[in-house]
Amino acid sequence: MNKEKSTGIQISQKPIGQEISVTGGGIKIKASEKPIATSFAVALGWLYFVLDCSGSMRVKQKLDQARLGIIDFAKDAFKKNYRVGLIKFSDGAEVLFDPTNNIDLLQDQIKDLKAVGSTNMTAAIKIAHSKLKNLTGTRVIVIATDGMPDNIKSSLEAAGKAKADGVEIMTIGTDDAEQEFLKKLASRTELSSKVSSDMFAKAISGASLLLPGPKSILPRGET
């Protein structure tokens, strides 16, 4: 029997090569003829960024600020093992892409965004909730807006249903957004903020610091 020792780990191989055993820390693993299969797991979080693209976002370059903020936000979220999707809303709501860690896709999709129409936040929250509710682990909706929604009651109701399903909601507002509404919309008061227009990008990117650590466990490679 040949033996090799290194820092308390012992590897043994029988002469005919049919069995290899690894011993260390009181644990012994054997493999006969077939290789040992290993599998690692990674915690993932799932997030939809819900962006107000109503007509008022044209003013004071708020949409441009939002673009910059979202890119920085996503880069930080990726480092925390989040996958980020994007939904825009104005008269209606549209999924631009589902959760990904592809920064090139994100940059490509947001460069041509236009600000037009009203503020149908309810539709956007409902879509994000429907996309996230069947996923396991940490799920987050981040809403960035510069004003009040077309229907305050239905927006709060849609947010309430998402939160009841365990989805975290973060809110970032500027200009005509109302602080108390943002607080009610968010999962917790500390997850809501209102800033001046010139601070919109910084507030959006900084919101990544408030993301909870992902809790979902998936085999590595399944993203």
Describe the structure using short key phrases.
2 domains, four-stranded antiparallel beta sheet, 223 residues, globular, Rossmann fold, disordered C terminus, seven-stranded mixed beta sheet, alpha/beta
The percentage helix is: 25-40%
The SS-based structural class is alpha/beta
CATH class of the largest domain: Alpha Beta
Oligomer: single chain
Number of helices: 6
Q: CATH H level of the largest domain: which superfamily?
A: von Willebrand factor, type A domain
As for the number of domains, it is 2
CATH fold node name of the largest domain: Rossmann fold
Strand content: 25-35%
- Which outline best applies? globular
Uncertain segments are 1-7, 218-223
Query: What is the gyration radius calculated from CA atoms?
Result: 24 Å
If classified by CATH, what would the architecture of the largest domain be? 3-Layer(aba) Sandwich
Give an account of the 3D structure.
It is a single chain. The protein is of the alpha/beta class and 223 residues long. The chain has 2 domains: 2-32, no CATH class; 41-217, 3-Layer(aba) Sandwich (Rossmann fold), CATH 3.40.50. Helices cover 29% and strands 33% of the residues. It is built from 6 helices and 11 strands. A hairpin with a 5-residue loop joins strand 2 and strand 3 (19-24). The longest helix has 18 residues, at 62-79. It starts with a strand and ends with a strand. Residues 1-7 and 218-223 have low confidence and may be disordered.
